[in-house]
Amino acid sequence: MQLLERIVERIYGETDFARSFATSAGGIVGLVLYLLSDDPVIAAFSAIIAFPVARLGASAVYRRVSAKASRHEQEAEADRQFAKLTEAERIVVSTFVASESCVLTWGEMNRSSASSSGVESLSQRGLVNTSMTLDGMRETFVLDTAIFDAGVRASRRPAI
Q1: How far is residue 22's CA from residue 19's CA, in Å, rounded to a whole number?
Q2: Which residues face 105 on adjacent strands?
Q3: Alpha carbon distances (Å) from 6 to 3, 12, 44
Q4: In angstroms, rounded to a whole number, what is the distance separating the alpha carbons of residues 92 and 128?
Q5: What's the average model confidence in pLDDT over 41-54?
Q6: Which of 91, 96, 104, 106 is the most exposed place for a label (fewest CB within 10 A)?
Q7: Mean pLDDT within 135-140
């Protein structure tokens, strides 16, 4: 009796979606085959075989759905952060978007209409950093990629 209670507790206390789904699918396969064939051995083996197949399928689907939800959540957070930017900061972001890159050299930034206070403000927010080019010859400004993507999305929306 305690063994059965432990099994039930483990099944219903499970937080792994794939395992929970596979347990249910294996149980359903076993029950259906038992009802159709009236043979408990075939039903048990079928349930055991169905379990890993269902778990693999459920795990793959869950990973995809989870990754997509995570991406949407990150995009929504970046859009909220972008909406909070000041006009000077948005001009800096639009400079990066217009250049189609989240990296600008000092020369490109100096030739742009972006204000130094907007750049410094984004830097204080942790959204713009300085870096070096791969050849180590020039310093660059690097915009946070999530904010860059939010700026690209904002630039594609029709103006109201």
Answers
A1: 5
A2: 140
A3: 5, 10, 20
A4: 10
A5: 82
A6: 106
A7: 83
